[in-house]
Design brief:
With 985 residues, the protein is α/β, with parallel strands linked by helices.
Length: 985
């Protein structure tokens, strides 16, 4: 049964490559989209007054007249090797979106990234036509390259005409990293709206202007965006794609993060969520994440539709078969971790004794005057295990609170006793702080041992939880290692977004003088340090396996060429009771390594699902409330953990779950013995041009005749570099590129491009080694580079005036190459078909024989339209012009028939989703009294309206080329003008 859609007004019948007439001028359509003001048509000027200009028109505001393709003028191509015809075909193909329902990969396979098949699988799943819109949770484990997968997906969405407006939301310390990857790897320009970037935008805009209308592609931190001020702006913007990194931070309902996500999810066509820890162990939190993607996959009663959920999630681990067979030498195995027990100093032993006797195991009760004495005792202990500086900070903070309180009579004594105990502990701490801590001495020894020093190449990242510890370490390490201020830096959440990005960037640069990065857990997510560093030290131990794994993942990830060395420093006081309990932390670190070797996901070992829950569980162990082996079981027992219930949602039915290790085989062995067949289809290129450079060169020749003279076009073949001086219209387009890139490389004056992947990688490496430059000198010329788009528009504008070029080819009769496209009610291209329409009888212009073309590249090669095809001269057209209307009519009829299958397929997929949506609404009737269910009903209703607009609505026919037999004679030369005709010119 087909579910009937509401009848909507048809969209304007034009597509990229069509010619329209607006305001008495001719324009070439470059893209279309459906808005509340009708169809938005972006165009390039064709007629004299508007040539070389761009514009946008709305069908509800302007009269847009689509020029009848059957009335196009057939004109002979007189250029050498039919250059103009090949350019027209290539530019038209570049401007025509890939069908929105296609999951074949194209542009993403030709970027400056060593993309692997397991990453391509994630991209294909995001594009899966079974989902009415591209929505996916990329839940790959730490280090597998989620950023690359995001870039690939966005590239493919843009190629499908579904990526005009994109918003990326990410933690603020990785803003620059994400922007850099998107531009340098994928040629996707995003304006970075950090605090400085937003200020610049506000200087350009009126106070009432929505800042998100200024740039169509932006990257911004979640901390900035979640403020109510920006959330109101977001409600007024419709996005083509939204990316939210570290999306596990969105699940707590009622928080600003969750409200932001709920605002964005309905306002975007594609939604990409990324998180290595997607489940915190609570089904409701996980359900909240799923509802952002598709509200119908979580039933009104809170249970999930497992089959539907599997379509929305991709999750792999290093030892998943498709991953293990590919990463190889590009991910060096980590060395056996070093867990160093450090004997406490006498001053530290005095603190340990005081903590044990007074705060942790008191004989006469704790001096703490609050309600949770045991908890506070371990709070002090945790600070002590970090550093004396951290303990002193905790003591002073508590003393401030105790001194400022006004307890009742009973409380006065209690508060006074607590203050006295704190002051006694403070004296011991100050004594310890006046000396070097045992862990600090060990850290200095270790760093010297691995070669860290002022003029030495080795780098190390040191993690600690407390800011006081970070400051303490920077001061003491600078002194003891004889480092200069630019050799060591600290990173924590209290720094501004600009400061955080600058520190991360400096540590990653090959030429940077920065040797030691002392960081808090702000850097445990999202930041990549593996290119220049393979030493990581835990100065204190997080009470969470998830956090330990996240930290380790900064250097233990795909692309690491050196075996990562993870080292942990654990203080070992001589107080038997306290020391015995602290061995729990030693066991925790050991369990993390064992789980890393055996399990797909370290988080599955404890089954708590979040850093806080794991930390609380370890605290309970230390407080003797729970047994360590119950809280942190051996890896072989992890299958009995509640987490396993959710792991089944993340894995494909055919994929190994890594549990073969229970019979003695490791995940690596399983991967070697498992054959994983390719799930990805790659779109075959239409090889009119062998490379993007070859196309760019000919497009510039067509647009400028002498590009070397007019725009300084130079090709440095031996170096894989080209350069040009941007024209004013290209400069305007480049204003949307990363602002740092524009400023550093001054590319609006002279633009250099790397034309091979090898040259592009060399440029990136050189930039990382530069003293003062972040961006490559020559940017990789990827298939989506704005320069190619600009060159396409310039070339099309010079050759397309509702004309059909005619060439000779290996055909028996006059033939027209025609493209038919089907669009949905939103103006998105659903399907396309090429056909060859033969016109066997010039005397019967209505008699046509249309034939579908399976592979356009093969067809063009078969008819001989290649870069080497000779052109003896303009072909004689004779009666060809009168054949075009019949060819277009036949193509119209043929497209209407041949594309019915595609339309039926689209209808079937849509109906499947709508059935689930209507079933959800029916089930919710019994729960309508719940406020949250009413809100979800509204969201499902909105999704149904959007789904209806995905139905195929109309088709457009475009004649691309006339192909005449080889023996067609050359057209006679036009007579020279007479003297009378030239007089006065």
């Amino acid at each position: 049964m087909t579910i009937t859609a509401d009848v909507q007004k048809p969209v304007l019948k034009v597509a990229p490559g069509s010619v329209v007439r607006v305001r008495d001028e001719d324009w070439l359509v470059t893209s279309t989209s459906v808005t509340q003001q009708g169809t938005l048509v972006r165009v390039q000027g064709l007629s004299e007054l508007v040539r070389d200009t761009t514009a946008s028109f709305y069908s509800e505001l302007d009269t847009i007249e689509a020029v009848d393709p059957s009335q196009a003028r057939v004109r002979a191509d007189a250029t050498p090797n039919y250059r103009r015809s090949r350019l027209f075909l290539e530019t038209t193909l570049r401007k025509t979106p890939v069908p929105a329902t296609s999951n074949r990969l194209g542009v993403s396979t030709r970027m400056l990234a060593n993309t692997l098949e397991y990453q391509q699988i994630a991209v294909a799943k995001a594009l899966d036509a079974r989902n009415i819109r591209p929505r996916i949770l990329i839940a790959d484990a730490v280090g597998l390259g989620k950023t690359l997968e995001i870039g690939m997906i966005l590239s493919e969405l843009i190629a499908r005409g579904r990526g005009e407006r994109i918003l990326i939301v990410t933690p603020r310390h990785v803003l620059e990293q994400m922007q850099h990857e998107m531009w340098c790897r994928f040629a996707l320009p995003f304006v970075r709206l950090d605090s400085a970037g937003i200020q610049k935008v506000r200087q350009k805009l009126p106070a009432t202007r929505n800042p998100f209308t200024f740039y169509k592609r932006a990257i911004i931190s979640i901390d900035t965006l979640k403020s109510p001020r920006y959330r109101e702006h977001l409600k007024k913007i419709q996005w083509d794609a939204v990316v939210i990194d570290e999306s596990h931070n969105l699940t707590n309902t009622g928080t600003l993060n969750n409200e932001l996500a709920r605002t964005l999810a309905p306002k975007t066509d594609a939604l990409l969520l990324a998180s290595a820890t997607p489940h915190n162990g609570r089904q409701e939190s996980f359900a909240e994440l799923l509802r952002l993607l598709d509200p119908t996959v979580v039933r009104p009663d809170g249970t999930v539709d497992e089959q539907a959920v599997k379509q929305l999630i991709v999750r792999r681990h290093r030892h998943s078969p498709e991953v293990a067979r590919e990463v190889g030498a590009d991910w060096a195995e980590r060395l056996e971790p070093e867990n160093r027990l450090v004997d406490a100093s006498p001053a530290e032993n005095a603190i340990a004794d005081e903590l044990a006797s007074t705060w942790l195991y008191p004989q006469d009760g704790s001096p703490y005057s609050g309600q949770t004495a045991a908890l506070f005792g371990w709070t002090l202990a945790k600070a002590f295990l970090s550093s004396p500086a951290a303990l002193l900070e905790s003591i002073n903070e508590r003393l401030t609170k105790v001194g400022g309180s006004h307890p009742d009579d009973d409380g006065v004594t209690s508060a006074a006793g607590e203050a006295a105990a704190l002051r006694r502990l403070r004296e011991l701490t100050e004594d310890a702080l006046a000396q070097d801590s045992a862990k600090l001495t060990e850290l200095v020894t270790y760093l010297r041992g691995i070669g860290v020093g002022k003029n030495k190449p080795t780098r190390a990242v040191v993690f600690a939880e407390r800011v006081a510890t970070l400051k303490y370490l920077r001061e003491r390490l600078t002194r003891d290692l004889k480092l200069q201020p630019d050799n060591i830096a600290i990173l924590h959440g209290g720094l501004s977004d600009v400061e955080q990005q600058e520190i991360v960037d400096q540590f990653k640069r090959g030429n940077s003088k920065l040797r030691v990065l002392v960081t808090g857990d702000v850097a445990s997510e999202g930041v990549n340090f593996h290119a220049e560093c393979h030493h990581l030290i835990h100065f204190d131990v997080p009470w969470s396996l998830i956090r330990i794994e996240q930290r380790n993942g900064r250097i233990d990830r795909y692309g690491q060429k050196h075996s990562p060395q993870i080292t942990t420093l654990l203080l070992d006081p001589n107080n038997d009771k306290f020391s015995g309990d602290l061995r729990i932390l030693t066991r925790l670190v050991e369990k993390e390594h064992a789980a890393h070797q055996v399990l797909n996901d370290v988080a599955s070992l404890m089954g708590e699902g979040s850093v806080k829950a794991e930390s609380d569980a370890i605290r309970d162990v230390l407080m003797k409330r729970r047994d360590f082996d119950d809280v942190v079981p051996d890896p072989d027992a992890a299958l009995d953990n509640p987490w396993a219930e959710f792991e089944s949602l993340f894995a494909d039915d055919e994929s190994s779950d890594g549990t073969d290790s229970h019979d003695g085989a490791t995940p690596e062995d399983s991967a070697k013995n498992t054959t994983v067949e390719s799930e990805v289809e790659i779109e075959k290129r239409v090889n009119l041009y062998e490379t993007d450079l070859a196309f760019l060169n000919e497009a510039l020749m067509e647009a400028f005749t002498d590009p070397a003279q007019k725009i300084g076009w130079k090709v440095h073949q031996d170096h894989g570099i080209v350069e040009l001086q941007p024209t004013p219209d290209l400069q305007r387009r480049m204003s949307y590129l990363p602002q740092d890139y524009l400023a550093e490389r001054r590319v609006t004056e002279n633009l250099k491009l790397a034309t091979t992947a090898a040259a592009g990688e060399h440029q990136l490496t050189a930039a990382r080694s530069s003293d003062d430059m972040t961006w490559p000198s020559a940017h990789f010329l990827g298939p989506l580079h704005p320069v190619l788009d600009w060159a396409s528009d310039r070339a099309l504008a010079s050759i397309s005036r509702n004309e059909v070029l005619a060439v000779r080819g290996d055909v028996d009769t006059d033939t027209f190459l025609i493209l038919g496209t089907v669009m949905n009610q939103r103006g998105q291209l659903v399907s396309r078909a090429f056909m060859a329409v033969e016109m066997p009888d010039p005397e019967a212009p209505d008699f046509a024989l249309p034939t579908p073309i399976g592979d356009l590249g093969d067809y063009l090669r078969d008819v001989g339209l290649t870069a080497k095809a000779p052109n003896p001269g303009p072909v004689a057209l004779d009666s060809v012009q009168q054949l075009l209307p019949g060819a277009v009519k036949a193509a119209e009829q043929h497209v209407a028939q041949t594309l019915k299958a595609a339309e039926a397929d689209a209808e079937s997929r849509l109906d499947d989703w709508l059935r689930r949506a209507y079933a959800w609404s029916h089930e919710s009737d019994a729960l309508i009294q719940r406020a949250e269910v009413r809100q979800r009903r509204e969201r499902v209703a909105e999704e149904r309206q959007l789904a209806q607009a995905m139905r195929p609505a109309q088709h457009v026919i475009r004649p691309l080329l006339g192909i005449l037999p080889r023996d067609t004679p050359v057209a006679p030369a036009a007579p020279a003008p007479s003297a009378d005709q030239t007089e006065g010119l």
